[in-house]
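Expect sequence, tokenised fold; for instance:
***
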Amino acid sequence: MIQILTTGGTIDKVYFDANSQFEIGDSLLPELLTESNIHGGYALRELMRKDSLELTDDDRTLILEAVNKTSSQRILITHGTDTMAETGEVLKQAAGKTIVLTGAMQPARMRRTDAIFNIGFAWSAVQLLPPGVYIAMNGEIFEAGAVRKNLAAQKFERTDDAG
């Protein structure tokens, strides 16, 4: 059984006007999983609805506690992309589990979203990777602690110390 935790982020954003006012809405993850023909083998839990820029150290502690409390050894977390790498660093404290964070550069509610691909990719990754903490974005797997978001390029990349 894969534990899926949602924290908000762009994947669940709802925009209200041309000035980009938004809020984090209900997660579309159940619909995305169904659209990807994933109908079971997981438990879904919403932890919070926050833009990742608003996440605090207390929020990251809550995410870590949820990971440590689940009996599942495989955990998929949807997360905002801006601070996904920082949360990945914190989650390295959870030993012996396979943890994959993913999100989207464009909300799942938009026609040209990367959400569906990223969820499917992360779903596969969490089943195949050995224990550790990973970020699954842009069709690549990055180890926590060796990745950053390149805002200008709108993608994730390995850091120089990634080897």
User: Anything to note?
Assistant: The chain has a mean pLDDT of 87.
